Amino acid sequence: MRSAKLFIFTFVIFISITISSNGQNKRLYKGQYHRGKSQPNISLRGIAKNELLTLYGTTGLAVYNGDLSGNGFGSHSYRPQVGGGAILRTNYLGRRLYLRADVRFFRLAANDVHESRNLNFRSSNWEFLALGQYEFFPYEKLMRRRTLINPYIYAGIGLMTFDPWGELPNGKWHQLRPLETEHVKYGNVAFTYTVGFGLKFRYSYKWNFMLEGGYRFTTTDYIDDVSKAQYPPKSSFSNGIQSYMSNKSGRYTGQRGNPHNLDGYFMFSAGLTYTFTKFHKAKVRTSKHLLRKT
Q: Each residue of 264-288: pLDDT tens digit?
């Protein structure tokens, strides 16, 4: 869990620096924030008029953190991920707080940080999250009043699926959950809790760029099929594949896993957002508009 604590500490420092640098360049003046209607109509036309709905798509890296990674990330633990979702703005929650739904497909994998233990796994996974997102600079209806970079934090809960596979001596991979390598039956769905931060970069009324990173805390210690401290005796398995997947080294005398630390993973993403709006481009006041009539 040291990696997760380091991530959260770095996140706080990074956000503080970003807010400070943006705050120095942001000029405040009376009437700057668009208040809008207290209760906008919830319709397709109303959604575009009030810029209530944003869709996004992202891609990036997923990073496993568990028994096989030790205090670091382990070997070959970076895997691709892709996802998307929707962000809802509502006047009930003010101009900084948003509701968000996220769905993501990702892979996790690791070779053992302890070579003599010689365990490994890979897994294809899904996650479904319900989030709250807080942006440090409030929503502005006018493009010229929007900050160029808007940092935000998010937190939420959800579900994730996992399906660990291990490598056999012939290079083929075998599903681990049915083997019960620790004589434990476990499911393939777990709750997950997440916290993270991001940066939104202004581009146009409809399009923005986004960068974000977050950590997922889970309620399972079997994403990697490793949890118990003690190895089951070889005689307790009914076939050679079960026995081999449980103790690949055959000679390792240390503990198999750490049941006191649950598994988790990081997500690092980059992507685009699209906001439903009736505006297409920022309005620029030319010299013609600035001339006073005589």
A: 999 999 999 999 998 876 555 555 5
Q: Convert 181-217 to b/e letters by CB count within 10 Å (16 or more is b).
A: bbeeebeeebebebbbbbbbebeebeebebbbbbbbb
Torsion of CA 113, 223, 212, 204, to 10 degrees: 140
Phi, psi torsion values for 183, nearest 5 degrees: 60, 40
CA angle 204/206/211 to nearest 5° reads 75
Q: Which residues contact 175 (CB under 8 A, 6 or more apart)?
A: 163, 164, 165
CB-count exposure of residue 155 (10 Å: 0-12, 13-18, 19+)? middle
Residue type, 63: V
Read off the amino acid at residue 215. Y
The rounded mean pLDDT for the chain is: 85
CA distance readout (Å), 274 to 36, 221, 235, 267: 21, 37, 59, 21
Q: What's the whole-model pTM score?
A: 0.81
DSSP 170: T
| Fold for the domain defined by 2-22+42-290 | Porin (2.40.160)
DSSP characters for 41-107?
A: --SHHHHHHHT-EEEEEEEEEEEEESTTTTTTT-BT-EEEEEEEEEEEE-GGGTTTEEEEEEEEEEE
Does the pLDDT at position 289 exceed 70?
no
- Residue 13, pLDDT > 60, answer no
Letter string b/e over residues 257-276, b meaning 16 or more CB atoms within 10 A of that residue's CB = beeeebbbbbbbbebebebe
How is the chain split into domains, by residue range? 2-22+42-290
For the segment 64-123, what is each residue's pLDDT rounded down to a tens digit? 999 998 766 665 689 999 999 999 998 889 999 999 999 999 999 999 988 889 999 999
**Mean pLDDT across 198-221:** 97
CA 181: distance to chain centroid? 30
| Residue 189: both structure tokens together | 């769905």
